[in-house]
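During the reporting period the student researcher (J.K.) took over the structure-prediction task from the postdoctoral fellow and processed the backlog of single-chain submissions. One of the processed entries is reproduced below for the supervisory committee.
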Amino acid sequence: MNEAELKQKTRDTARKLFHSLKTGVGFDQWKRFDKGLARDLSMFFTGTLYSREVISQTQRELCAVASLTVLHRTNELRAHIHAALNVGATRQQVAEVIFQQVTYGGMPVVVEALDVYGKVLAERGEPFPREEDDR
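J.K. obtained the following structure tokens:
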């Protein structure tokens, strides 16, 4: 793939994953420090790594949600919960992945991740998973 194709793939993947975010995922901050490196990082992460087709985008984003929950990276978790929902994960799947992390990270990180998840749902104007059952 040539550089122009990689740039387009980067833009397309970023749009698919993160179009629902009102604020960026980190690129603008990276760019303030080093514009060239920010471009290279974005093209690697979004254009190469996140666009691989070995597993589905939904599976990839649910893996990201799980990892970021255990690592207690709430800012990045917010972005990847948006991305998971944007590529087809259900609200129930996202909640289940978060709950499953109690074994690896403990209840405090699960509670924090559920708080982030609730805020993401509010940002998107979507109901909590239990609210769907009550309809």
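The committee noted the following: The chain has a mean pLDDT of 91.
J.K. will present the remaining backlog at the next meeting.
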